[in-house]
Every structure is written in C-alpha cells, then in structure tokens.
Amino acid sequence: MRTRRLLATAALLAVATGCADAEGLQSSGDLGTVHAPHTLWKEYRPAPLDPGQQPGTAATVPGIPKVTGKAGLRGVDALAVVRADVKAAVTQDGGTGRLVDPRALQRLALCTQAVDDCPLRPAVLHDLTGDGREELITALDLDGRLGELRVYSLRDDGGIARILSRRAVLEGVEVAAEHLAVREPTSNPAYVAVSDYVWDPASGTMNLSQLTLDDCPGGNGARCTP
Fold first, then answer.
1. How many CB atoms lie within 10 A of CB 193?
2. Tens digit of each residue's pLDDT (9 = 90 or more) over 29-51
3. Which of 223, 220, 198, 221 is nearest to 209 (CA)?
4. What does the alpha-carbon distance between residue 147 and residue 156 come to, in Å, rounded to a whole number?
5. Rounded to whole angstroms, what are the CA distances from 194 to 121, 168, 209, 211?
6. Which end of the chain, C or N, has fewer beta carbons within 10 A?
C-alpha cells in the first residue's frame, strides 16, 4: 500500500510540472511570474480642456448662409464651409493648434482654379445620423501625411454644424450605414488601428464607439503601405 501511494504521488507531481508527449512527460520550462500593473507618475494629471475647446464638439459654422430647399448639403460649397470653419477655429484657439492645425489656412489658400493644387479632398455625401439627410464628409491634407477629417451636418434651422473633426494619418476612411471608420498606421507595420465613430443624438456629434486593430491588406503579417 505504501509503495502504491508513493507511485501515485510521483505521477501527480510529474503531471503538475510537465506536459505529456509520445516520449513521456516533458517540462514546460519557466512560465514566468505575473505582475500587477504599476502606474507611472500618479501625481501628474492633465489640465481639463476649457469649455468649447474640444475638437469633436458640435459647432455651427459661422458666416455660411442657411441652407434652404430639399437638396440639403448637396448644393453646398464644401470649400467655403471648411474655410469658414477653419478660420473660426484658428480665431478661437489663438493659433495654438488645439482645434485646428495652424497650417490649415495656408493650405486652404492653395485652393484656387488649379484644382490639382487644392489639398481639400472631394466632398462625399452620406447619411451618418440616420435622419434621411446626408452629411458632408471631407478632409484637408496638411503635409502629405497628416490630415484633418471633417464632417458636417445640416440642422433643422438650415445651419451647418461640424459634428466631427479628427487630425490623423488617414490611412483610410470608410462609411457603412451610420458608421464612419478611420484607419491609421501603428508602430507595428502589420496592423492598423481602426476608430469607429457613430452618431450620438445627446451630444449632437459623431462619438468614438470602438477602437480595434486590424490586419493590413493581404494578411499573414503583410506590411501596410507607408
């Protein structure tokens, strides 16, 4: 009986410390030690933004005539809307870049009759709020890499409101139903970050609802196009 108990104990110890294969039990090696997260710089906290200083805050674009008729934003000059919005943002943030990149006005000045020189991307109309009216989606390329994505919506009183502004490396922008997704490169060349924005009636803006990682086109660890 004593011998049988010793054999059973030895078998249990072997299973607890190794893995079985065709040749018998093998050690899994040191699996490491799990450590709790350690918070760095606990005493440091960023100052809160001043009221109205959040880039994503909805704001009626000043200096733009109210829209009338059934065409909605389809007949609106997107360049005039972005120019008025950027000018107001530069005045509001004092050129600090908190609301809009300080280079934006200079870049918009390139938008003359020479269409090829205009860094403002062609406007796209798509219903993102689900009210049956199309939103105006465009982006201003700042330096060949960084861009400012801007989305405008038509209010009931005919005013045009900015419901999203996002400064990012715009690897890709996608719309589907009432979702707008922004794809950005990450430090890992095999993945892109995907920010999914949806309409929030309470705030009157497009709010971030999900942030995920996605494989680059081609899969199997393929590198994203720079």
1. 18
2. 666 677 788 888 988 888 776 65
3. 198
4. 30
5. 20, 12, 11, 6
6. N
Beta bridge partners of 151: 137, 164
Q: Are 181 and 173 in contact (CB under 8 A)?
A: yes
Task: For the chain, give the mean pLDDT.
Answer: 82
**Three-point CA angle 219, 221, 224, nearest 5°:** 80
Q: How far apart are CA 158 and CA 104, in angstroms?
A: 26
- Cβ(137)–Cβ(175) under 8 Å? yes
Residue 30 tokens read as 């040191």
Q: What is the DSSP code (8-state) at residue 216?
A: P
- Decide the pairing of beta strands 146-154 and 135-141: antiparallel
Query: What's the one-letter identity of residue 154?
Result: L
CB neighbour list of residue 123: distance below 8 Å, 6 or more residues apart: 78, 136, 137, 138
Edge-to-edge strands, sheet with 172-176 = 172-176, 179-185, 191-200, 205-215
CA dihedral sign of residues 199, 168, 62, 158: negative
Helix, strand or coil for residue 90? helix
